[in-house]
């Protein structure tokens, strides 16, 4: 089709219409979103949430595309790169955020999350323990508050006691993920302020993809928050110690004191997040020393340098007589007059001390007016530390003995007592090995960056080393090793690695540029010239080195997050059991294996080999769940036969290795039992039979299985009672529990259902040895009305022994 020319008037109208549409789009979309929110599910039905989400995204896009916003926003390559890095960091940290739930695979999440829930539910904000400082716990109390309000609006909660921990953990982990992403942004700011924009971007990219850093941001623990607040404090420390001060008298005084106060506040907040972040005070002191050194240098530069100090002092102490007798020159010979002239010129340059030696007040004005003294900086920093720490640990002064006791316990645990499975005689090598697992090239770049900082010793290097050196000594001075304790240290290693890369690339490109200038006279083939230009391009080299350093960590991080997004072994085992069990069925669980749904009854808690297979069959326990990671005795497990199912990690998922054994317990319809035939509820329920051993030791439990058969529906949920009575009819033991502990209420029984109901009876130690009768039945708990058609059902004789 031929191009049709457009009239100038029509084209101009089109150009005017585009901004007008963009100008009115936010208002139109905001109105549409308001209507969608107001109509809600009542009108929009299932489409309400998708429509509201689409309108919200469209509104955000229209605001960003608005002509006034576009005109004011200056998009740079640095901003685009930083946004991309932060998006990558956020994606790695929220991917698999529901990892493991409803199981909590991290052993320390409960110390923060459960404590926050307890505080919200009870209103008691004093912590049980100071093993961790309280700042992040209080932050999670705020998250729990917002979560409760959301749940109340969704009809899930009535009181804070109703909060579902699984739902809350997702919200709590989201805060950690956001702080982890924020730490990436702070790494960029710290690197840029010390070593330039390029080093800041590279450092942020490296910390964004480190597998351990991304992984730790998935948990409700204090390590990632400590990293965030450590970086936040360090920004103020770096600004105080490295950035040049502004001229301006009292403004400089105020700004420097304000920086010291804010830096101290950051150190206090970081320490209130995790105790070992208190080592930041060394970096703060180093920053103050740099300020004092810079002030002394400025003072020396501002002092007049007309003649040596010895001459100045001599002249000031002993001024020439000419200054005291000005009439003398009129009678002096010419030779003396020349001497007078010399003195007069000296006088012009060096005023007498009576004229006041103004250097005491003007040549060094910083002592009183322009710059704060070192003591003032120290006091401001100390005030900030106390303020920040008190904000995060408000009860520290009152609970100081408890805090010191808990800190002493931590020190003893790490240095002397040890932690089984997390100990090393060579902690330095352990942390180096762990760092190489993050990326071999990255680890060597970090080490090279530290070496360069020691050799170069610029102000920026000193400040970063003031963080790294105490942290490394702290980590390597104990026998207990956890790589997550190194989280606050890793951003600074990445900053030095980035500074090393930038320094090497700058040196290389400069050398290549000089070589190219020298070889301009000689013509080279096109491919050779292209390679020369490429290897001398600073941006291309930086991107290539960044790709090399990031490749291994990024691949490992993606692999780790893929595993976190998959169901764990526990989740798979739980789903397998749910598909093969009936409501109210009992399942034997070893400790720390599964969390069953409310419809099943979990018993056990001890190793399965404590009982023989026949015992499980007699108890009607069909499935036994075993924790294979423990040394429970392979030979004993062989007696259970081949597991019905195994759930292994095999490098494909997280969680413990589990086995589920099918004991071969018969179905309730064919289990042996003593027939009864007693009826309840006018024949609605029949006690088909019962089984118990007929004897029990005082202080023990009498196993009792009741087999109920429903003949027609029951209108209510009834309670089963079991009484052990003596010859006079006095109760010596009693149990009142709904059938199957309420997992399968009687109102849900259908005609033809056969229900095995285990009502094991505890017999107190005070029961005298002898013979007793066992009675059972059902009643309406609301009215205490029994529904037995012929009174209590006699279950035979039980002998009690000592």
List the helices and strands and how they pair.
Blueprint: H1 8-44, H2 48-64, H3 67-72, H4 77-94, H5 109-122, H6 135-153, H7 165-195, H8 197-209, H9 211-216, H10 223-241, H11 250-271, H12 280-302, H13 309-317, H14 321-324, H15 334-349, H16 374-392, H17 400-417, H18 427-438, H19 440-456, H20 459-476, H21 490-518, H22 526-535, H23 538-565, H24 569-578, E1 586-589, E2 601-604, H25 613-618, E3 623-627, H26 634-638, E4 645-647, E5 658-662, E6 674-675, E7 679-680, E8 685-691, E9 695-697, E10 701-702, E11 705-710, E12 719-725, E13 731-737, E14 754-758, E15 761-762, E16 770-780, E17 785-786, E18 793-801
Parallel strand pairs: 1-2, 1-3, 9-18
Antiparallel strand pairs: 3-5, 4-5, 6-8, 7-8, 8-11, 10-15, 11-14, 12-13, 12-16, 16-17, 16-18
Low-confidence stretches: 10-17, 245-251, 306-371
* Total of DSSP H or I helical runs spanning 4+ residues: 26
Overall tally of structural domains: 4
Helix content: 40-55%
Mean pLDDT over the residues: 85
**Oligomer class:** single chain
What report would you give on this structure?
With 802 residues, this protein is an alpha+beta fold. It folds into 4 domains: 14-73; 185-297 and 374-561, no CATH class; 569-665, no CATH class; 671-801, Immunoglobulin-like, CATH 2.60.40. Helix content is 53%, strand content 11%. The chain contains 26 helices and 18 strands. The strands form 4 sheets. Strands 9, 12, 13, 16, 17 and 18 form a 6-stranded mixed sheet that branches. It has a 5-stranded mixed sheet with strand order 2-1-3-5-4, covered by helices on one side. A hairpin with a 5-residue loop joins β12 and β13. The radius of gyration is 39 Å and the shape is elongated. The N and C termini lie far apart (106 Å). The model is unreliable at 10-17, 245-251 and 306-371 (pLDDT under 50).
